[in-house]
């Protein structure tokens, strides 16, 4: 996966032409105490005035729990544009989470799935050993596109499982003084998402009322980060503009949040991911040999299946880097 170099082409998968390997995982560098670490996004232009903000992995941090990839895009006016156009491409060793605040995304995959995902609906794809998919804005689409694409690393015992696609239009909601939270993955304050999770994890979309001082309940054994989606939020006294992400470490039982004028954020967390990983392009593995084999299988074999119905060619795999791909620690 080329999260640290090269030119990005789309906001929802890593289709760069010169990706670098990213080594991540392991608990050595996890902050075991509360911290406030602002993660600087890498901004990539997609043309036609569209940009994507890559927040994980970055030069400062590679994972938050099992969350290993976060792209934030929009809100963008695509009324006169084709919008999202992501050709068929492969995945292994991870789950993809599609989350929208505005717009629609049409998902196709090599299992034969065909589903339009809309705001506050969960599109969850488990790649397991191998899958391929495409994502695109429907021909007739709304004016605004705004959302996030996230990946979850699969633990060793699950990463060779059969691939699957889940769609959940109705998700559990938690409420408290001044906030409303939609649980898209894992559990928050007793509410559990129907999406299948393979590690202790949480992903929630939190709406904060104007002027409210909110206290979000947290698990002290989890590490957390927040991504501001709308409005200017203040998280643990740190101001965050839309598209900003704050890493919070572990050891918290609650998180103070406010948003003058109202706002929303994504709360991402989970138990620190103990295994060490190699991420390259759209693959998550444990060794460079696994990545090399996956690339060859995508180019030459049928392991990843075929996506039917997309009007265009599939994405060729970029060349592997010259240096060996090795798993190392969680931060650069």
TrEMBL record:
SUPFAM superfamilies: RmlC-like cupins. It comes from the Bacteria. This is Pirin family protein. Transmembrane segments: none annotated. Keywords: Iron, Metal-binding. It holds the Pfam family Pirin. InterPro entries: Pirin (IPR012093), Pirin_C_dom (IPR008778), Pirin_N_dom (IPR003829), RmlC-like_jellyroll (IPR014710), RmlC_Cupin_sf (IPR011051). Fe cation binds at residues 89, 91, 133, 135. It comes from Actinomadura logoneensis. Residues 204-303 form the Pirin C-terminal domain. Gene3D superfamilies: Jelly Rolls. The lineage of its organism: Bacteria, Bacillati, Actinomycetota, Actinomycetes, Streptosporangiales. The keyword Metal-binding applies. Its cofactor is Fe cation. One of its GO terms (molecular function) is metal ion binding. Binds 1 Fe cation per subunit. Residues 51-152 form the Pirin N-terminal domain. Belongs to the pirin family. Residues 309-332 are annotated as: Disordered.
